[in-house]
Amino acid sequence: MTSIRYLLILILVPLLINQLSKNLLFDPLVKGWWINKPSEVFLNSSQEERGLAELKRFREKIRFEVLVGKTPELSTVAIEERLKDKVTQITYKYKIESAEAVGNIFADIVSVFTFIFLVVAGREQIAILKSFIDELIYGLSDSAKAFLIILLTDMFVVFHSTFGWEVILENTLRHFDLPENRNFIYLFISTVPVILDSVFKYWIFRYLNRILPSAVATYHNMNE
Length: 224
Prior knowledge:
The chain is an all-alpha fold. The protein folds into 2 domains: 1-138, no CATH class; 140-224, no CATH class. 84% of the residues lie in helices and 0% in strands. It has helices spanning 2-35, 45-67, 76-121, 123-138, 142-156, 162-175, 182-211, 213-223. The longest helix has 46 residues, at 76-121.
């Protein structure tokens, strides 16, 4: 019970600190400073491309609504006014997004330091938690151990997990408002899972095969 409570503390406390510091401290400070900067709208080119695509879709929507008779014929001046209003909305939207990304960076740094502090300050609890996990894993049957190994490797290593990697990378880049470079994403997906697969096989050969030989044998049989 002590181990589970400390594990929950390690997970929940950094998350809680992240949300509190972001919503109560960093977001108000960064947004108040960023929004008042007239020259700063986009943090990167991919964000700017999304803004331009949004404006283009809005312009095409106006034309479509006029063609199908949903709205009356608009003069050039009226169209320009509507476009200016949309630009104002897009500008504000991406200023908020950029400010939130900056706030995310500071909040995540605070969370990392909080996690490190909990680990350093709770060395005894870490040792107890490690013993608890070891007992839990060693208490499983060989087939259960092999199933967990296959489940984890299929989720993070093998090639049919590439879509999951793509979603994780895109959300991570957007979380920090970094450019969503497709070449970088595809390069990462084509190399990192292969490296992880090699590391995992080496780990099985050098470590797991020595301490859990029967589980490794079951793993190979299930994988065939």
